[in-house]
């Protein structure tokens, strides 16, 4: 990675997204509460590709169109993942909040071509070793334990006591870490900070702590392998180094925990606030399945993903993208593109959304299936155990995380008839 320093006094270079004005800062209450309205506004003003400003007014392009995003993710030869191509490194300070996810690392996320196929192949085969029936059983056991801790009180705040805890416990169990304890809790918190730092948080330090904990896990599994994802990656004939495995495990855990937790959260919110699901919500498997898929279209957990970097000057959505420009994948905007949903009707039965991305760098198979097992089991088990679950506040009182990247609630307070264990 090029050495970073303070922004240059001369402003953005000619041809970059910010040059000429009109770029929107990717921040503010619009993203927190009504991002869909903001995406519509951006699309009306700029078309399917909009000039935007990241933290510190760093210029980038936001891809809003479904077909344009599909094109970007299908053409790695034009829009690649190696961030060392970025033409803005001279303007990036050492403590930039997005650095953990943009600064080049020896991770599968930044590899290309044959090297990416090799690394992604290791992850795919390691994930294929997870038995989905066993995972569902384990998730039910985890859910039962979490629910038992608050079932007798008749009330709970689900984000902290259930939604984030369940997928993280399941994921670290799949990776061979202890199921519970302070290690897991710290890992959850550090992943949250590194993805969506609040004021006073240090995302770079949090990401370093995540790496240290995963490095310890890899060391332990190198000495004592077991029936888990980490061990299968270590024993794979591709012969990845420990550092490569640490980086790829961080990607696997981060991609599994935060997005899956918010998928659970957003689905529960839909089921508890939308009258279309009110009749069959209690134990209604069909309704849960429809809600899970609708959320991926309308409230997808990963709103935007950074990113791709232009390999050479090219055209996209009527825009001139210069070599080295950063392209942000507007997954939420693309999923609600009116070009694919005439009259604003989203068919929940359709699964052609881009929530797991697309192309060579999409979530590796069978990751989406495992995420679905975790999310579906979490929602169904909660509704089965607490059939009269209702919100403890008015729907409009729920608040969203202040994030342009992830879509999830800050809290989900509920009430129910206390259950004596």
From TrEMBL:
Sample GO molecular function, one term: heme binding
CDD domains tied to this protein: CYP_unk (cd20623)
Gene3D superfamilies linked: Cytochrome P450
Location of the region described as Disordered in the Swiss-Prot/TrEMBL record: 1-21
Family the UniProt entry places it in: Belongs to the cytochrome P450 family.
Name by which UniProt lists this protein: Cytochrome P450
